Amino acid sequence: MNVLFVMKKILRQFMRDRRTMVLIFLIPLIIMSIFFFMLKDEMSLRITLVVVSPDREASMYAALIETLKSAENLTVIEDSGPSAAQAIAGTNADAALGFPAGFFSHLSANEAPHYELRIEGTKGGIEAAIGKLAEAAILRARLQSIPLFRGRAFSSGAVADISYHYNTRGFRTIDLMAPGFIAFFLYFISFLLTCVAFLRERSSGTLERILVSPLSSVSLVLGYLLAFFVLGSAQGAFLLLFSTWVLGIKTVVGIFWALIPILVTVLLGVTMGIFFSELAKNEFQVIQFIPLVIIPQTLLSGIIFEIDALPAAFRWIARGMPLTYTNNILTGMLLRGQGVPELATEFLILGAFLVLFAVLSFLVARRVR
């Protein structure tokens, strides 16, 4: 009953505050729309490419590899096979070029052999970038023994059989990034609202009056979590509907699977808000936590920039951020079609963050008592 009392109290406070309700429901739609128009066009990326060929001793293969390795922002891994799909699964590369046995012999005979271009599928712009690089490299391999033709603009003559490791062909950059942004918006808002609300209740003396009642600190924190679980469910569903029906965001599976990790992240934002509210004396100091808690996670959790493209020191920092694991879960669920068993490690780590900050929230509430 105590938990329900706190939940109803918090919900009534939010319902009476129209500005807060606008913040909860309207601001995420505006921000999501801004990111949609900013990111709907493709962006340049750092790419890891696996080259699979059984003819790695051929001189034409050496010319092809040399051309690929000279490209900027491209890491080339050589693999003997047996297939491009297995090479991607084994290396987590962004794309793979698969050249069958005899490919370079047919190429030197001025034929049009087929090769496989397989795209991992969770990054935007890979197909176009690798397609151009592969064309240039195969042309270099074909003409490497004919000095007269070097530097001329010819077609390689080879035909790429394009496939996707995950069913994301035709996805835009915004489709690949949207789930992570949705989780971030809801996490940020729940953190900020909880931090300010808990601070106000402490500074006004309301929190002390509640805690001198039979209500325990555990009931207080659980009441906050339950209230934001209700708000987060409604807010998350509303934003997901807007993203899919209005903005046309595409996923491999139903986007509502995203509610599972999103709600865990919302609750994490609540517990972190309670904890950090103890460190603030007023609302202005709460705002100062944004560069400390929010912005680093935005930049380093893989939502905007790929973690593998970050410097080594930042990759270690990223592993200690909750949104990194939320983003990994959403990418696995919505872009790769993975289930909870495949993402169990990420779920456990995200759950551990929630338990940690829940315990810290209980300690903060008890300290107020």
**Averaging pLDDT over every residue, what do you get?**
79
Instruction: Determine the strand fraction and express it as a percent band.
Output: 5-15%
The computed structural class is: alpha/beta
Strand order of the largest sheet: 2-1-3-4-5
| Gyration radius over CA | 26 Å
Number of E strands: 5
Distance, first to last CA: 20 Å
| Basic shape | elongated
Q: How is the main sheet built?
A: 5 strands, mixed
Polypeptide structure, described:
The chain is built from 15 helices and 5 strands. It is α/β, with parallel strands linked by helices. The chain has 2 domains: 2-40 and 172-368, no CATH class; 47-164, abc type-2 transporter like fold (3-Layer(aba) Sandwich). Strands 2-1-3-4-5 form a 5-stranded mixed β-sheet, sandwiched between helices. Helix 4 crosses helix 7 (126-143), helix 8 packs antiparallel against helix 14 and helix 11 packs antiparallel against helix 14 (322-334). The protein is elongated. The two termini are 20 Å apart. The relative contact order is 0.12. The model is unreliable at 148-154 (pLDDT under 50).
Entry summary:
The chain has 369 residues and is of the alpha/beta class. The chain is built from 15 helices and 5 strands.
Descriptive terms for the model:
369 residues, alpha/beta, abc type-2 transporter like fold, 5-stranded mixed beta sheet, 5 strands, 62% helix
List the helices and strands and how they pair.
Layout lengths: L1 H15 L1 H8 L1 H13 L7 E6 L6 H11 L4 E6 L4 H8 L3 E4 L4 H6 L5 E6 L6 H18 L15 E6 L8 H32 L1 H6 L5 H30 L12 H19 L5 H18 L11 H7 L3 H13 L9 H25 L1
